[in-house]
Amino acid sequence: MRSRAGARRRREIGLAYVLLAPAVVLLVVVLAYPLAWEVWASFTSLSPLQDGGPAFVGLENYRLQLASPQFWLAAAVTVAHAVVTTAAKLAIGMGFALLLARPFRGRALVFLAIFLPWAYPASVSVIGWYWTLSPPITTSYSVFMGNLKNAVDGALGSGAWAFLSVTLFNVWRGSSFIGVLLLAGINAVPPELFEYATLECGSAWQRFWSVTVPLLRPFLALGVFLSLTTGFADLANVWMLTAGRIVFPVIGTQAYWLAIGGGEFGPASALSLLLVPFLLAALLVLFRLLDGPDRAPA
Amino acid sequence: MKAGARWRFWHRALVGLAVVYCLFPIYFVLVQSLKTAQEDVFGYPLIVLHPTLENFEELFVPSGQPRGFVGTVLHRSYPFFVWLENTIVVFTGTVALTLGTALAAAYALGRLRPPGYRWWRRAIFATYVIPQTILFVPLYHVVNALGLDDNLLVLVLVYPTTALPFCVWMLSTYFQHLPREIEEAALLEGAGRATAFFRILLPLSRPVLVAAGIFTLGTIASDFTIASVFLLSDINQTIPAGLGTMEVALDELLAVAGINLMAIPIVLISACFARGYVRGLTAAMVEGA
Predict the structure, then answer these.
(1) Is A96 on the interface with B (CB under 8 A)?
(2) To which CATH superfamily is domain B80-285 assigned?
(3) Which CATH number fits domain A68-291: 3.40.1180.10, 2.40.110.10, 2.60.40.10, 1.10.3720.10?
(4) CA separation (Å) from A183 to A219, A248, B172, B201, B275?
(5) Nearest CB neighbour to A140, from listed B40, B125, B224
(6) Chain B residues within an 8 Å CB radius of A142
(7) Helix (H, G, I), strand (E, B) or coil at B286
(8) Sign of the C-alpha dihedral, residues B228, B230, B235, B239?
(9) What are the domain boundaries of chain B?
(10) pLDDT, tens digit, for every residue of B232-241?
């Protein structure tokens, strides 16, 4: 009996690996070689503009990056951008979720409106958004937008408006995603729990921090993580769209600029890999919150 | 009672604000696409007085044909119909491939649970940490080695990796939280594993599958970079890659119409499944839902 169960379990495990294979092969084919290449390139002087093969330079690329003031500026802007956009998305998204938490007339339509910014394909809306906010053309709104652009650029330096407009777009889209995610979280909480909390807690503010936020913790963590890893995509899209004309002072576009503009693959790889430890740390926090041992039963 | 009335007022005001904030950019782009060239320059920014569909019609003019009074000198025509076909092929292929591989992997991790299944799941999810910045440079080597340069299949191969980790995560936690007895009963009655999966597990997980599908569609529909890096000749491009090559100063209205043509079907599909999307997210994240 025992051996039959053992054989069955072995067959199950074998089947599990077979079923796991397509997903793993897909990820490995697309990601493993590029990642290995990037790590290798970051230790060499690889460049298509240079004669002869790449030389091994050890940690030189990393050292040069860490020693340059440009890197620290880019790092500061990247962190500020990530913190500000993520906080804004969480705040607005939480607002959406709370607005939709209780039934009211027209709730289904309001939900749909809040869902749309994320569902609206960003690949094309970023094109529309960018042209709207920085119109190079004689449209009826270009005077207004041009004045706005000049005012912001004048106050904060050239290129500020382009950066700000893409950031606004990112928040607009991300707050919709996080709003829907948090709504899914609120739907998972039995209404009696909120009713009980209303009786127990003094103020709505207190109730929000001591009941709603802890209950939504896994959803919040997931939203923050996905916002951190995908937040850069909009900037990348605009960078491609304008053929690198606009270099945002963040690590990602600087890496592009080094790699595509200057052919310096080594430093560019080192630059983009410097982000990995921070994202890994965020990931570990996420795993702890998602299925850690201390997850409180709801 | 007075407090209730005040609460309702603020709730309504905030809901109104949220709806305007969410819909205004979409409305604005839609309005621009309905304008004539005349109104685009001299009209009001926020409204259209004489709506026209001519921008949409012009998108479908076969390439090579002179267009309007400027002829072929200034205006290029675009193979928009081909872009549309390409986009449909890529998106359908990607969603199918992503859901298929994610379902298989999720069944393995959530039901069969090989040793270390949690770590498999975490490892798959951890691929999100890989910085996408200049990844397309070495990816080009892979694409060339596979002989897929300037081929739509590139996108079908690359796109799933952006949505697959989250889909595997959602589906496998959902499967894991379903009680074992659900399948066991069918297995005891002599049904095979495959039958039990297709007859019992799959129908049960419909909302989560919808959520995974909508997440995949939303994720791949937001990519502009990969499409424009790998699809070079215009007959191989998808709509985003193609629109990116348009001359903005001359073809602004056409491009805006193109944006709407791509966005409207995707928005409609997503809207149909919007409620299922929320239900699926809830079910995936909560034990035994």
Answers:
(1) yes
(2) MetI-like (1.10.3720.10)
(3) 1.10.3720.10
(4) 9, 33, 21, 25, 11
(5) B40
(6) none
(7) coil
(8) negative
(9) 2-74, 80-285
(10) 887 888 888 8
Task: Look at B135 and A35 and tell me if their CB atoms are within 8 Å.
Answer: yes
A contacts of B158 (beta carbons < 8 Å): 30
Give the C-alpha separation, A284 to A288, whole Å.
Answer: 6
| Phi-psi region at A71: left, alpha or beta (left = phi > 0; alpha = psi -120 to 50) | alpha
The SS3 call for residue A56 is strand
pLDDT tens-digit profile, chain A (298 residues):
567 788 888 888 999 999 999 999 999 988 989 999 989 988 988 777 776 677 788 888 888 888 888 888 888 888 888 889 999 999 999 999 999 988 888 899 999 999 999 998 887 777 777 777 666 566 777 777 777 777 877 777 777 777 888 888 889 989 999 999 999 999 888 878 777 777 777 788 888 888 888 888 888 988 888 888 877 777 777 776 666 666 677 787 778 778 877 778 888 888 888 888 888 888 888 888 776 444 443 3
